[in-house]
Amino acid sequence: MIHLKKYNPHIGQQSFHYAIDELYRFVAMICGIRGGKTYSGAREALKQAWNSKKDGVFGIIAPTYSMLKRTTWVEFKRAAAPLIMPRGINDSDFIITLKNGRQVHGHTAEHADRIRNETFSGFWIDEARECKDFAMLWDVLLGRVLSTGGKGIVTTSPNSFDDIHDIFIANKNKDYGTIRFTTYENNYLDKLAIDELAAKYDEKYMQQELLGEFVIFQGAVYYTFNRHFNAGDLAFKLAQYDANKPICLCCDFNVDPMAWMIAQVGINPETKLKEIYFIDELYIKNSNTIDCCQEFKTRFPNHRSGIELYGDATGRARHADSNITNWKIIENELSAYGIRTHVPTSNPSERDRINAVNGMICNSKGIRRVYINPNKCKNLIRDLEQVPYKEGTTQIDKSNLQLTHSSDAAGYFIESEFSLNKGLITGLKI
């Protein structure tokens, strides 16, 4: 039997190792981000692989090829380094041979069918909430350990009431156990850094990401929005055009309607935090990029403080075959204003965009940093109040063709400048 050295797990990790050793056949560690999931998952997987019977190989599964290659596989190799046979690493096929002859094979959830020809002595699924069809993957893996009686471990943060919740909590199977703890319980992290991250998250997202709780995301997507606080009298006062500040032009390329948001950024004198003021919007039906540029020039003919350009990296445009042409039209039409472009090569994930917007509208500390001119941005306000989730999912419902465009445009800007990913805690992973 192998015992891992130079590993001092915190109390949550200790509970995880005890649960799989002594209590359950299948254990899910469900906790806040940076809680040490992958770190302890790799070491438990190594222990399980080394101590396993000779029947089968140990399976490691990550949601995508990129995550397997860059994170999960790397962390396992780091944990297993002293026990890997010389020349026992085949990174191209994701195969590791340990000094006692046991093998470890890496797979991705993207190609779960390729796992069907394996016999596993046990398995580890890392970052399980990112797997597109966890229920199907789980059924495949149960078949891989049917003849060996192998154990399975899952490391993840929660993602609403999904398949993981159904399998490990709702079903109440005696062979299934969960270990749950918050990011704060990782005593190798700076608590002030965690608090700073909590201040970027809205209340529900903070509960999910840092407290490791299952949270229902349903109904209105932008549930932190409050018309009185974000688009009331104070917002009207703050969200007025300032000729001395750059204009942030945020574009969503849809033809009917084409929606562009016009914003400026200021500093709150009390909190010293940046705030966003949406001062105007373009919402033109059956339109095109040139028409919107002309309308912008009509509304802001004498602006001389520059334009910061944000928006959709992959949106459709009537005048061109690609987004690059749309952005080129804007740059040509508005070149006299002085343009700086912040358009990414690809869009952020929808979930990242939603979370960034909600966190800026109102964070978990009750601080609001988005103010909207109620007289000029009526379509954005309508979006923030009415855009719903698809029933039973955490995806935006786009069935109403008149909704989502203004909020998408605003979201591209907010995610670019105030991305929650920029606030991820770095440092020790233990």
Quick structural gist:
It contains 14 helices and 14 strands. 33% of the residues lie in helices and 20% in strands.
What does this structure look like?
- There is one protein chain.
- With 430 residues, this protein is α/β, with parallel strands linked by helices.
- It folds into two domains: 11-186, P-loop containing nucleotide triphosphate hydrolases (Rossmann fold), CATH 3.40.50; 227-421, 2-Layer Sandwich (Nucleotidyltransferase, domain 5), CATH 3.30.420.
- It has 14 helices and 14 strands.
- It has helices at 11-23, 37-50, 65-80, 134-144, 163-170, 191-198, 203-209, 227-230, 233-238, 289-299, 323-333, 350-361, 378-386, 405-418; strands at residues 26-31, 57-62, 84-90, 95-98, 103-108, 120-126, 151-156, 176-181, 247-252, 258-267, 274-284, 307-311, 339-341, 370-372.
- It has an eight-stranded mixed β-sheet with strand order 3-4-5-2-6-7-1-8, with helices on both faces.
- The protein is elongated and about 75 Å long.
- It starts with 10 loop residues before the first helix and ends in a 12-residue tail after the last helix.
The name CATH uses for the topology of the largest domain is: Nucleotidyltransferase, domain 5
Strand fraction equals 15-25%
| Series of secondary-structure elements, N-terminal to C-terminal | HEHEHEEEEHEHEHHHHEEEHEHEHEHH
Q: Tally the helices.
A: 14
Q: Could you list the spans in which at least 5 consecutive residues all have pLDDT below 50? A: 315-322, 425-430
Number of strands: 14
Structural class: alpha/beta
Q: Quick check: average pLDDT?
A: 90
- What's the CATH first level of the largest domain? Alpha Beta
Q: Which overall shape is indicated by the principal axes computed on the Cα atoms?
A: elongated
Strand order of the largest sheet: 3-4-5-2-6-7-1-8
End-to-end CA span: 23 Å
